[in-house]
Design goal:
By secondary structure, this protein is of the alpha/beta class. The protein contains seven helices and 14 strands. Bound molecules: zinc ion (2 copies).
Length: 281
């Protein structure tokens, strides 16, 4: 599998000189499966440049777009996704209930003329919507399963297994027991992430910021780190960076956790998601 980050930022795009390294675009990941099936997770602003790249490089087959949920920072790039304007393109949009039931309505509404000059119904690509309510979904050789995140309004995390390699992507998830958005226990997340080659997890806040942000539906670096350790993942990638977090601050946080894992003799690799960076496993 080949994974590439096109948008790593949480909540709102944050371009500027302090976010050049980790990127200012909101959530979008590209995943190329071993059989060349093409998968995208989320349609934050990062999907704009991904769409341009698809048009430049050409694409055979279907674009599978999985939406973790419909919060603004995960769908706002869709109207700028160039392949949606091409007649020969087929896009399958996947979501989990209950959000799935309204996905078409949500994407249509954000392109209503008060917000955007082109109507969803005028897009030329063949766009279909599909729910993934069964436990396991297959795309080509890959198996895909999901878990309900702890996040206001519902969001889902995904586990993709392709030829014995596993990537888990969980964004917009609070790994604490705050009752407003508590659906899934930490132990269930440990099982879901167990042994993953790569775990990409929400790490929006520092521990001391959680005093103010508990219940927002996001995790701290510390919570993401201990999940990675307890689930024996091979590589953890901090994701959904806080919009005001500068590159320097993320570098400092990352080196703190690098030292911590070295001290604890933990072999897990550690990274912060960086726009434009690819991983091949
Ligand atoms: Zn988000
Ligand atoms: Zn969200």
């Amino acid at each position: 599998m080949k994974l590439r980050f096109w948008g790593t930022r949480g909540s709102i795009p944050s371009p500027g000189i302090s976010t050049v390294k980790y990127g200012g675009n909101t959530t979008c990941l590209e995943l190329l499966l071993d059989d060349k099936s093409f998968v995208i997770f989320d349609a934050g602003t990062g999907i704009r440049r991904l769409g341009n790249s698809i048009i430049q490089n050409g694409l055979n087959g279907v674009i599978h777009l999985f939406l973790t949920h419909s919060h603004w920072d995960h769908i706002q790039g869709f109207p700028f996704f160039l392949p949606a304007y091409y007649e020969k393109v087929r896009i399958k949009i996947f979501g989990c209930p209950p959000v799935y039931n309204k996905l078409k309505e949500i994407l249509t509404n954000q392109m209503e003329s008060s917000y955007f000059p082109v109507n969803f119904h005028d897009l030329k690509a063949t766009i279909s919507f599909q729910t993934i309510d069964e436990i396991e979904h297959r795309i080509g050789t890959a198996k895909l399963s999901f878990i309900r995140n702890n996040h206001p309004g519902a969001a889902y995390g995904f586990r993709i297994i392709d030829n014995d390699k596993t990537i888990v992507f969980i964004t917009d998830n609070e790994l604490s027991d705050f009752q407003n958005c508590h659906h899934t226990k930490r132990e269930q997340f440990i099982d879901f992430c167990q042994g993953a080659d790569i775990l990409i997890h929400d790490a929006q806040y520092l521990e001391d910021e959680m005093v103010e942000t508990t219940g927002f539906g996001h995790s701290s670096y510390e919570q993401a780190f201990s999940l990675g350790v307890d689930a024996n993942v091979k590589q953890l990638i901090f994701f959904h960076h806080e919009p005001d977090r500068s590159d320097d601050e993320i570098n400092t946080i990352l080196s703190h956790y690098q030292k911590k894992k070295d001290q604890l003799k933990i072999s897990m690799k550690l990274d912060a998601a960086q726009e434009g960076l690819s991983y091949v496993i």
